[in-house]
Fold these 4 entries.
Entry 1:
Amino acid sequence: MEPEPTPIKSILLVDDDPRDVELTLAALEGHHLANKVFVVQDGAEALDYLFRRGKFENRDGGDPIFVLLDNSMPKVSGLEVLTAMKADPHLKMIPVVALTSSSETPDLHEFYQQGVNSYVVKPVMFDDFMKVVQQLGVFWAAVNEPPPAAAIPEPSEKEVIYLGKKEVKNEFSSSHPAS
């Protein structure tokens, strides 16, 4: 009997700010927290990815172990993505972390009303931002036990996959030794 492959840990990062995306990826890379990070640039792409429709209809892989979700984005807001996820019987089990610049009480209240698992205000300072994302990644990708269907067996090669306008593969694996 062959041993089962190690489940891959994938994260869906939904953010329209390229600087925040790069900082988030660097912070996750620094702690080897995910084999795959799928990056989409707006809420509409996030919903298409999660519901496997449009250009993601035949995508490989299962669900992410968690979603890092900005709120203020073009087309569909993060709150609308969260609401759609929590209304779907299959997707509602996926943990969602709002990583947004808004510290407004109504936003915070509405996200928790819709079932967000965590709400984190993006720090302005570079070092603080990196530390917060690393802490989020450690908890949600390493400490927290993901929903049973979230992790799927795949090769353990690390990749960053931009699902919007560009695709970059194997970005993580070049900068540190295999673990």
Note: The chain has one domain: 9-162.
Entry 2:
Amino acid sequence: MLVARSLPLVPKPIVRRVAWRYIAGTTLDDAVGIVHHLARRGATATIDALGEFVENAKQAEQETQQAIATLDAIAANNLPAYLSVKLTSIGLSLDHRLAEQNLRYILDRARLLGLFVRLDMENSPYTTPTLELYRTMRESGYDNIGVVIQAYLYRSEHDVRQLAPYQADIRLCKGIYNEDPSLAIKDREGIRANYRALLRLIVELGMSVRIATHDDVLIADAEQLIAERQLERDRYEFQMLLGVREQKRDELIRCGYPVRIYVPYGEDWYGYSLRRLKENPQVAGHVFRALFRYDGFSRR
């Protein structure tokens, strides 16, 4: 959609005005407050300190320390939450060994605090390195770590099968990055079909699955599967983004399903916000309507 593709041309204050519902805020205290609010509504959380755009080892170290601070805050505030981390934020785009070193540091702290860490999945250049680091960590004795599989990638069935020996804890999502058609399914029904197939494969292989979607068709399908297989609550949960389909979130909670909300925070909110807005063309349209109400750009 032309509107969505044009979002990078929109001034940041406009993007922030519309996208802020998807972000806890710029500080860790903001995220803690949001998680407390979600807990009162019956939801757990996963917290992500946004920081994808590191250019050197010093920045990767800073982002690693922010992840450690997030873990400490989760423990200190007794939050029903764990940490999500993007490996590029701790150096994967710079040096695989640097990212491994920083990840071990994070996992050691999480293990000391009795906490879990989810490796977020990024765009396709990082799929194999992320899965390799996951396997390395598991083979090193870390069991407080999970991973993400993206249903729109053709490779995902193979990746799920490769994770079976580790009895991985998998977040299954559709995928949001703009990948080449040779790598990713592009039509909605094709992605849905692969999502359903992967969900069943993960369950059949005995792994835990975190059903990350806002799609009513896929949610209903997952509910049917949960009932048919009589899955225990520790084998699954629904996951949603902060600020997205809150009525559906509350409905799932009322039905007794475990629900976890992805809570991002930090100064590097802009790239994340653009992806969320591009994913939702209707919201992207709100951004452009807001553009013409913005004083700095109004036509008088």
Note: The chain is about 50% helix and 15% strand.
Entry 3:
Amino acid sequence: MKRRISSNTNLIAFSRDGNRSMDEIIPIMAECGFKDFDLNLCEMMRPASPLLEIGFGKDYIKRLIKIKEEYGLNYYSCHLPYQKSGEESPLTELSLKWAEELSVKIAVIHPLYDTFDNNLRYFERLLKNTPESIILAVENMEDETEFSASPSLKRLALSFKGRMGVCLDTGHLNMRGGDFKTFINDLKGLIIQTHINDNDSLRDQHLLPTMGTTDWKSVVNSLESSGYSGYLNYEAMYFMKALPRVCEREVTSLSYKIGKWLLSLLD
């Protein structure tokens, strides 16, 4: 495993004082230690998002590229807008266009809330329009009626070997009562991204590590022994809704320190 952490840009996107966009958040996170980022293109799901229009979207992308160059950052991953139950999102192809312009290499995507065969057909169509430079990472979900088990994720990823891997969401697996060591070993060689977050095992709370019930030593050592070579990447943000914006730098610095602590758990 790379001895570094990264974060989705939504880490401090929410607060009791209102929401923030990526171009506002990334400089703060960079100044607090983060250099590697998973871009939250789920911003496109907000009706007022500038990314929804080609003209405004290009200006926004230019701002993000300028920030990247100014701070010496790495936009290696993104989270695509997720689909509603059984539907294909019209935002997905546009978000892949923005991802290519931002030189993103991994695009995390939720599976459809549908059958395996329908997911297979959906991803087959989607990959025809996905730039060759981008690999999709399908995420394990939290409900037993969704794609949450390692066999179905493995089967799907292997159906598109070389174009698709798996994103391990620790919060979702914790809610399923999953054995991290077994789950990660089942997907050995297929996990290409992580969503590191915690919860009480009942709700998808997206807390920082140590704020819930996850066995973090098991998580990091299972990833290490599986040969995972990516980042420990935060997708922790909802806890920030309880806090005022004036806390965002302290929260970001604390998040970075907790990430360093996670790396110290490696045997």
Note: The beta strands are 5-8, 36-40, 74-79, 106-109, 135-139, 164-169, 191-195, 232-234.
Entry 4:
Amino acid sequence: MSKNSIDITTDSACDLTQQIAEENDIDIIRFYVITESGSFRDFDEITSQNVVEYYENGGEILMTDEPSVEEYAEFFRKHLSHCSELIHIAVSSGVSESYDRAMMALGQLGEDSKRVHVVDSHSLSTGTALLVLKAAEMRNGGSEAKTIVLAIESMREKLNVSFISRNPAQMYRNGLMGRTAERFCDLLHLHPVFSVRHGKVVVSGVGFGNMEKCAVRYIRHGLKHTSDIDTSLLFITHAGFSVGLINEVRAEIDSIVKFDEVSVTDASATIAANCGSQTIGLLYLRKLS
């Protein structure tokens, strides 16, 4: 890259595939997944499939951690050595310390900190990825860094981010739902639906009965306001769903609304460690007014 370029970076909890990241010239800093066996770098040392297998084999000690302030500072320095400005889009400060740590890292950069723009996505998983891809598109189109940041900050409130999970136990263990709600779901065999609102994860509904049927009902509800949907791109992001069930999900989506592009992505190990196995989400943008 030339010294006059803008680099776009993000966190591994954005769930972008390596291929999509490379095609769009996006760099990713890795989170960590921690088990009784040690700490593992997301993607490089552990995947969502590893996490799913860990759950299925009865594993319970599973936590995640963001890169340290020092790691963010070094990551930023690496990019600033060859670009004029850097835009880092972090997963929501309402669910992660990544934004705060990235901001603290600026204090270690001296005058170079003025060339770094850290943006709170107010989202997670491929909700953040939608913003990252938009930023890369604008960068490639010649937009200035400040223009990109303003556009992303406007777009983030239009994100539609939700998931349905088979088992809420891991969400409770990681503080993403209360004990009472977790026990209620477990007792009645309910599958909680989570949405991201104002940067925080909230329980927005429940599914009853068979998980496969619940997933279909979740899709119908999530896409019910079709006239308000930006149909350019939909992410279907999941942990532990079979190919057959993913195909059923895609067929159901196609029967409701036609997206220009549908990207099926595995959740990162970080996201899988927080939401548990057999989780699937729909992530897209609402139309900008």
Note: The mean pLDDT is 91.
